[in-house]
Amino acid sequence: MKRILGIMVLFVVMVLASYNAYADEAAKSEPKTLLGNTGVTVSADLNVSSKYLSRGSLYDKDPVAQTGIYVSSPELMAGDTKLGKIKLTFWDNVPMGKSDNLQSSEQDYGVDYTYDGFDAVTLSAGHTYYEFPDATPTDGAPEGFSREAYVGFALPKVLLTPSVYYYYDYGRKEDGGGQGSYTVLNFAYSKPFTLNGINASLDLNGHAGYNNKQYYSGHGGDVGLGAGITMPLTKSLTLKPNINYSVPLGNLKDKNIGNQKNQFYWGGYLSASF
Asked: Which CATH class is domain 2-273?
């Protein structure tokens, strides 16, 4: 209940802050950030989804609320040389139903370093610490947890903005960790359009992932497709209803191993930048 109340508070803060930012931008020609002229930016999002799926695996059949808070540094510089940016992330999943026996409570704490000083490619590396409060590890720990490092690159100027990321989960399975790797190829396409004088966009995305023993034995993977429409509510607040479809592959769908199935799910993102 406390976490659901926290989500409601975050929602109100996002709306009020976005309207304050809108007023500031309307009154002044230069945009104003939450932390003044430091160059640090803060953003947040609230996603309500009919199910919780990740990397082809179903973690909750009930609706969930997922909140994210992101703090990004300005461009780090050494003289005239760009050194990249650092982003800190907090992400939380809260189940909102009890029609199944799946326990999907989760909190993630992440740090990301991204370098975009090249013309054609963007490089990223980072680390995420996962907490699973409802899990009961076999080694007797009070809750489950895991740790994951990743590296990747993106081609932002290429059609469909392809990106490739490699994730290595080195958390022990006895603690609730994945102890394996996941490699994914992502695609995304956005088409702006105007409806009744409102500038919006049709957003399409897809991915193909390869799972090497992460949470499951053997090899498998998944394919995911999604579509959404991003609609501005203010200059700093957007709403994105979306639909998604997930297809497990290999050992991920083997009923004796992963036992995952094709899943259709839908939801809506509320995103704000301050």
From this structure: mainly beta
